[in-house]
Amino acid sequence: MIFGKRPLQARMGKITRLCKSWLLLALFFSSFSIMAEAQGKQPSLRLAHPSIFLKDEDGKNVLSTNKAISTRQTCGACHDYAFITDSFHFQQGKNEMNPGLMKGHGFAGFNTSPGMFGKFSILPNRQLTPVGVANPGDVDLTQPEWLTKCGVCHTGGGISEFDLHGHRLLTADAKPHGPLDPSYTIRDRITGKVVPWDWQKSGITEADCFICHAPKASRGDRREVVAAGNFRWANNATLAKSDIVVKDTKGNFTYNRKAFNADGTVKSEILNLSDPPLENCAQCHGFSARNASTIQPIQHADILRGTEKAGWIYNGSKISETVSPRIVGKEKMDYPWDVHAAKGLGCIDCHFSPNNPGRKFQGDSEKHLSYKPVGEGIAEYLKRPDHNFARGNIPPETVNITRHNTMRGCAECHDAEKTHAFLPYKTQHFKALACQTCHISEVHFWAYRSDEWGFLMDTGASRITFRGIRGDIVDPDSEIIGFKPAYVSTPAKDGHLEIRPTNLITGLYWFDKTKGRPVFTWQIQKAFFLDRQVGGGWEYRPEIVKAFGDKDGIIDFPQARYDTPEKIALVKRLLLEHVGIADPELRIEVVPWAMSHSTMGKAQAIKDCKACHAKNSILRRPMELNDFLPKGVPVYYAGKQVNVVDQSGKEPTFDNRSLLRSFYIIGNSRVLWVEILGWLSVAGALLFSFIHGFIRILGAKKS
Amino acid sequence: MTTSTEPLYSLHERVWHWIQAVALVLLVLTGFAIHFPDRFGIFGSMVHALAWHSVIGFALIANAFLGLFYHFTAEKYHHFLPKMDDFTEGAVRQARFYLYGIFKGEPHPFETNSRHKLNPLQRVTYLSLLNILLPYQILTGLLMWGVTRWPSTFQKVGGLTVLGPAHSLGSYLFLAFLIGHIYLATTGKTPFSLLRAMITGFEESGHRKE
User: Fold this and answer.
1) How is chain A split into domains, by residue range?
2) Domains and CATH numbers, chain B
3) pLDDT tens digit string along A533-558?
């Protein structure tokens, strides 16, 4: 027994008290660190978590058992594990699977949650299988498969611990409800059959506290074991680069005793638990660094989400100082990638824990208090830190839907009235426009442009195109030219609509009108390809090659498009013949990805009125979409059928007129009948004057 | 030609008229700079055009109220009131003159003097202009200018999506009026007699030489 002679409970109580004291001190020190960072200095003091025991699922020190670390036992000894993991990083919608909630927020019926665990997105074109399916044909993404694909970032606990019936996996209550229970099955990639998932073998993943709180967390190692379905060891893998955990040549994890103190606790300076540094957030959310001259948003074969979708780079260094990749025109970009990053703000400065006494809103709106001197103490916060972090309202991110706009808005830190002296009608401008509209007027990186699952390439997957780059995203010689955003309207904190910049990602996908849901990827694969052999590749059906390929029998990029109604009809027929989908419909969906990072300072922000108030207003900018889009198919925007694609030109472009209908942009907006009537009256007056005057002159000459 | 001894337009009327005229022209120009900022940048930035538009707008409002005050206190408002007993007959006579008689060198159907300054068509036109179009334009303009001061009123009338086009339409109608007004000002006894009258106060007497 490494804990010594005293009873475990007594020792744990002391540890808890110690934890609280240390954390109180640490919080005090961390305020210094924030101040130092704000002044552009390296923090001299850093939050120091006390030394802890790493425990296994039985509460025993892993040094003695060599079992996987249990964060429920380790971290849960002081912190309220259940409270913490009942939040969106761990649940991704699992705790929001409420049909009433979904209906109330206007989600299509085929979505089961507002989060990534339950909501259909065109990007992976996958749909979580709901509980209660009876037909194997209704099974798409199951819980185990979701974890192998998404579990690297979605940090254990919640989805990784509990089945869709609410039972903790690997407990006596956790049993499949039928042979197709989505918590206990997976569709075999080769045979296409739905087979049981062996939770005993995979284990479960408890909340991975380390991936956010341990500075040396390794997302790459975690990804490897999660993708292999080795969930039990996921949290150990996260520590693979910390010197605490050692990975042997067989991929097994053991513990490095040198990282532990004599009393069995892990050395605090090695584990180094702290408030999440931005580098940890960056591992999943988007390229973020305090001062990086090399921008590499592709890590462990994944493109970091925020960069991928909206092109944001949260980096304090100047764009002009970028060494790699090649940013076209960087010589003139003598300003930081993000002005907030340059000022030393970390992610948690804005996306804080809502009950953190140092950061939370101190008022009480229900009692009309702008400052509330009493409230939850720091001890309570340390015990139960709310992990539903403050956030804005970023389309199309709808997870944690009842807690949007919980972070401070720009105006709650900046006094915009004082810094926008040049701007007339400030209140109107600030109401109609999100700050990002002028302060993220351009993105100097690449991002997704389209992802088409409606036509599968010979990899069995979609075709993805990017905007803002000349060349391939992995080619170091590619030139990054950046792009200018499109503008859409989204609800602000008080519910009114405001205009904000977005990247647009266009998807092409098939919809099963009979079932009222998107056609699953495996179904499209069956329609497009011959049966796949073990170890074999994807081979198009002859009908597909004949219709789409050229003389060489290969379907190249330019040919992989639905440019005739006959090609659409062919795929419809194949979907009927091979998958039994009687009424499929090809759809276009344009998804806006709002931008809130890569923020520019005042020198780069838009100040020219004519940028917006002119015929060629940027607010009506016709952003080019995917040039492979077919004509004559329904267009969806943000889940609703709205035609936002203008196909009248050479290339399809985004047409936001219907989205900005409620905005009258002086100098740009025109009401057609007003203009016609107005100019007719002016022309009529001129015409009358000329004709009348002319006849008068003629009459005068005659007389 | 001779000149009458009693002024057709008093000094007050002339000053009021020219302030109104200059203000209207400037409002149209600055309005164009706001409505077509990329094609009509004569005031520099849109901010300048907007600032001038507001200042001139208030000058016009003040002048309009002074005019109203003057016309009531000097009991000159009756110049603008159509005489209902013979309005139709008079309007037809005036219209016939504009559409036919003027080309034949016929005399003006109505003599103008300090007591009868406006013909029936002018009366109804100016009455509408000063009592409908001008207040309408002032109201829509004021509401837009005062969006930050009276936001709820602004929203109640439909916000910028209603007020913007409404004010634009009024501006076009004012421009059309200005064009017609300037042209018809040449239809006096000589092409410049009416203009001269509005400057000096006196109109040349005698009929137009055709």
Assistant:
1) 670-703
2) 11-81+111-200 (1.20.950.20)
3) 777 789 999 999 999 998 888 898 88
